[in-house]
Amino acid sequence: MKGVGPARAAMLEAKGLRVVEDLLTYAPFRYEDRSNVKPISELAPGEMATVLGEVRTARASNFHRANLGMFEATFTDSSRAVLTGKWFHGSYLADVLKPGLKIALYGKIEFDSYAHGLAVMHPEFEILAGEEDGDHSLHTGRIVPIYEAAGKISARVFRGLLHRILESIPPVEDPMPSHLLRQLKLPDRWTAIRNLHFPEASSDLRLLNSFRSAAQFRLIFEEFFWLECGLELKRAKARVYPGIAFQLTDRVRSKIVEMLPFKPTGAQKRVLREIAKDMEAPHPMYRLLQGDVGSGKTLVAAEAAIIAIENGYQVAVLAPTEILATQHYFYFKKVFKKLNYVPLLLTGSHSQREKAQLKKVVAAGLAHVVVGTHALLESDVEFHKLGLAIIDEQHRFGVEQRQKLMLKGTHPDVLVMTATPIPRTLALTVYGDLDVSTIDEMPPGRKPIVTRHVEQIRIEQVYSFLKKQIEAGRQAYVVYPVIEESETQAMKAAQKMHQHLSQIVFPELSVGLLHGKLTPSEKEAAMEKFQRGEIQILVSTTVIEVGVDVPNATVMLIEQAERFGLAQLHQLRGRVGRGADQSYCILVTEKLNPVARERIRTLVESNDGFYIADMDMKLRGPGEFFGTRQSGLPALQIGNIVRDADILEVARNEAAAFVSHPPSEEELRRAVTYIRDHWQRRYGLVQVG
Ligand code: ADP
Ligand code: MG
Fold first, then answer.
1. Domains present along the chain, CATH in parentheses
2. Which one of 174, 256, 282, 662 is CB 3.0 to 4.6 Å from 189, fit for a cystine?
3. 578 lines ligand 1 (CB under 6 A)
4. Ligand 2 mean position to 119 CA, how many Å?
């Protein structure tokens, strides 16, 4: 393209803009109404206006407000009147606003008593002297798109580039099924693209800035529609691979009933039906089981394991941490005792000799359930006959690790679990190829956990509350902040806290310590003592975040809670409230910034994991929330799965309908080709079509 040399091409590419089509959907993140262009002499205080003028003077102000680093410039135009522009901390502008420079200013006009005239504070401005965009009408006198800059490519340059592209290429063809355009009253693609960049004068600025103009809606819908079609096609294709068809006989059912320690909730029954149906089918299951902390996912996993084991297969359970793996191991040992199944634990901290021994047992098929951490993924771990792979806290594992585990069997069924539940449509989108089951009901008799926020200076009151709970026979966790990167530092903090609590605050109580640097047997010992009630207060790092299950523990005290993420705090809180007694979560904070305050407020307000995940997504943004490990998360161009959740919903329904009942074979074929040509590169929909 003219105007794009190697340097600019590189800057564009760094933003993912490689071909002209990428630029067409490079959406402005904001619009400004600069249609009100006025001569300075006609400006009135209070109005938003655009002025085209020239810099007359520019200097740091040393008058009155010198300490604020105020920078002042005056501007004049053909009307000969003068307007003052003011910037706090604007000294950097000395190099930019040189007298004589032609400029467009946009902002709110005020009467300024110091200047005895009109002024504008922190105006948006653009230099009009650029050699390549002499056409001012692109940048002023209209609703103007504001693009995120790419390297040195400013919004202004983007405007110029897009204008030239739109002038010079023929209208792009509209690939959307025509019945959808009619039904949803969507503008055609070319109109939408043109209005995205250069909205008509009559456009509603508020709609534009909330991404709901007809053009934006159409393009967001389109992006979601093709993405969802791609995912549907991919899912449909995965479903026809050969897999294990487990038999769900009466014998299997009676084994499940025999194992169950209590009556499953309605939600547990429903998700088990969904899982069992997948397991019976002669194709691999690929299912996400999501449910809030404590909703009873492990029990459902155990039921699924029985189906596999009774059919003569082994089950692998992959957990992100040693503590969680150990917990699962104990859990399965307990519930499978009656059934005479053999569970086995395999983690990185077994000695080489032990590991070799354990691996032999697994390979010989002598262990029914193999629970482990990443050690389970090592290449020399071989199963005799792996039928079901269960992956807990799946967000901690990448897709490759899932793949590695699957390859240890011949198309085994896969069940991944997460305690960060999100709305179904979102889950189906973000977790791409997975089907989704959700436990949306808590086991009966749970009392909602009471959550309180306490400032550090009142910690003594918290300690005396803790003491009362212990005297009443309960137990407590005290979690100390973790600097994610360093388990060593976390350990030191926890050790110090342990010393303080055990020697000074609670010398008469039994205070235990748990952190990631303990050996597995030390960890196990600490957990067991806590389980048996021999330890009354367990001081810990976040290693206890997931999986720990001690119903008699009723207090979760989190120090420096401002340093934890929302999901993490909710997970930690989920360690209590598991028994019949009222439980408490106490969030102690030292220094609160506004976002941290919002997190704490959210937790105090709600116990609902769905609500908390939603808030977390909003506070952190979807990219941060799902993290880079979640390679399923597509890099969307214009759509935003949080902001545009409503459009996503519509698009998903339409896509599902389109793929399962296409208007014609011909239209479906066209869609598949289009997705393959245009969307595969972006979203990695590799197996489509
Ligand atoms: P999750 O893994 O979803 O966080 P768990 O499976 O650890 O939850 O279950 C949390 C607690 O609830 C455990 O103590 C478990 O024994 C108990 N539980 C699970 N299902 C039921 C049920 N249907 N009725 C009563 N208690 C249950
Ligand atoms: Mg669990």
1. 6-172 (2.40.50.140), 193-239+638-683 (no CATH), 250-439 (3.40.50.300), 450-606 (3.40.50.300)
2. 174
3. yes
4. 61
Tell me the residue type at 651.
A
Ligand nearest to the CA of 298: 1
Half-sphere exposure at residue 351, Cβ-oriented, CA atoms within 13 angstroms? 3
In the predicted structure, residue 504 carries a pLDDT above the cut 60: yes
Question: For residue 266, what are the contacts with CB-CB under 8 A and spacing of at least 6?
Answer: 441
Length of the chain equals 689
Burial 186-223 (b: 16+ CB within 10 A, else e): bbebbbbbbbbbbbeeebeeebbbebbbebbbbbbbbb
Give me ligand 1 centre to Cα 301, in Å.
11
Cβ–ligand 1 distance for 418 under 6 Å, the answer no
DSSP-assigned beta bridge partners for residue 452: 586
The residue whose C-alpha atom lies closest to atom 19 belonging to ligand 1 is 296
Assess whether the C-beta atom of 287 lies below 6 angstroms from ligand 1.
no
Sign of the torsion formed by the C-alpha atoms of 658, 659, 660 and 662: positive
Q: In the 8-state DSSP scheme, what is residue 364? A: T
Identify residues whose C-beta is under 5 A from ligand 2, the ion: 298
CA distance 215 to 221: 10
Mean pLDDT over 435-444 rounds to: 92
Torsional sign, CA 184, 190, 191, 193:
positive
Most informative mutation of 299, 329, 416 for ligand 1 (most atoms within 8 A of CB): 299
Instruction: Answer whether 612's CB lies under 8 Å from 604's CB.
Output: no
Q: Is 627 left (phi over 0), alpha (psi -120 to 50) or beta?
A: left
Cβ atoms < 10 Å from Cβ of 614: 20
Report the alpha-carbon distance of residue 487 to residue 493 in Å, rounded.
10
Separation of 547 CA from ligand 2 center, angstroms?
5
Portion of the chain with pLDDT greater than 90, in percent? 52
User: In which band, very low, low, confident or very high, does the pLDDT at 549 lie, cut at 50, 70 and 90?
Assistant: confident
Residue range 632-644: mean pLDDT, rounded? 79
Protein residue whose Cα sits closest to atom 21 of ligand 1:
443
Helix axes 609-626, 594-605, angle to 10 degrees: 150
- Encoding tokens for residue 647? 């459009």
* Cβ atoms of 50 and 105 closer than 8 Å: yes
Is the distance from the beta carbon of residue 145 to the nearest atom of ligand 1 less than 6 Å? no
Residue 62 is predicted with a pLDDT of 65
- Tell me how far apart the alpha carbons of residues 481 and 624 are, in angstroms, rounded to a whole number: 20
| Residue 543 C-alpha from the chain's centroid | 21
- For ligand 1, whether the C-beta of 298 sits within 6 Å is yes
Please provide residue 266's backbone torsions phi and psi, each rounded to the nearest 5 degrees. Answer: -55, -40
User: What is the rounded distance in angstroms from the CA atom of residue 79 to the CA atom of residue 91?
Assistant: 28
**Does the beta carbon of 443 lie inside 6 Å of ligand 1?**
yes
pLDDT of residue 677: 81
Task: Give residue 268 CA to ligand 2 midpoint distance, Å.
Answer: 13
pTM: 0.78
Using CA positions, which residue lies closest to atom 25 of ligand 1? 443
Between the CA of 327 and the centroid of ligand 2 the distance, in Å, is 9
Asked if 119 and 110 touch (Cβ cutoff 8 Å), the reply is yes
- 543 pLDDT band, cuts 50/70/90, is low
Contact of 520 with 350, CB cutoff 8 Å: yes
